[in-house]
Write a structure and sequence with these properties.
The complex is a heterodimer of chains A (113) and B (113). Chain A has 113 residues and is mostly beta strands. Chain A contains no helices and 11 strands. The radius of gyration of chain B is 13 Å and the shape is globular. Classes of the chains: A mainly beta (113), B mainly beta (113).
Chain lengths: 113, 113
Amino acid sequence: DTAVSQTPKYLVTQMGNDKSIKCEQNLGHDTMYWYKQDSKKFLKIMFSYNNKELIINETVPNRFSPKSPDKAHLNLHINSLELGDSAVYFCASSQGQGRDEQYFGPGTRLTVT
Amino acid sequence: AQSVTQLGSHVSVSEGALVLLRCNYSSSVPPYLFWYVQYPNQGLQLLLKYTTGATLVKGINGFEAEFKKSETSFHLTKPSAHMSDAAEYFCAVKGGGSYIPTFGRGTSLIVHP
C-alpha cells in the first residue's frame, strides 16, 4: 500500500489554465504539507494543514489554494498557471510536530508551456 | 529561528570509499535533526533522525550520523559507498514545537565505479 499518493504524476499544461493536484495519505497522520521543488532541488514549504485546519501559509501567490476535505486528503488547486510555476510539487504528511519525520509522496512534475 | 547549511552541493566518491556529507544547523531550541534521501524521480524518504538520547544514530542502507552539539553539526557517513547510493541528500532541522522542518539545499552524491 502506498503511504502518500499523488495524482497525476506528470502534468503538462498551457499558461493561463487552471489545474489541480490531489494527495492522499493512508497513515492516519494529523498533518499534511505541500512543497515546491525547483530545478536546483531546493525545497520550499507552501502550506501545512493540521486536522483539516490551515496552520502554515508561506508567501505563495494567491493563485495557489489548498483544500483539505478530510484529514487524509490535501489537494492543491492552481489558477492562471504561469511559466514560473513549472516545478515538482510534493505532498507530505507527519503524525504531528516536533520529533516526527515527514513521509513524502512521489511528486507531481508540472510543466507549463 | 533555525537554519541548515549543507557544505558542498556535489560530493563525488569512488565505489567502496567513505561517504561524508556535512550538515551544520542553527536552532534557538534543542533541535530534532533528520537526513532524507531522494532518488531520481522519487519523493524524499527518511534515512535517519536524532531526537534525544544516543548521539550516534544509525539509519537505513548502512548510513549513520552523529549529533555534535558543541559543533552544531549532524554529518552523515557511510563506510563504503555503493553505486546505488547515488542520490540527493537533504539535512533538516526542527525546533521542539514546530510542525515545519527547515531543509538544507541538498547535496548530490555521485558514485564512480
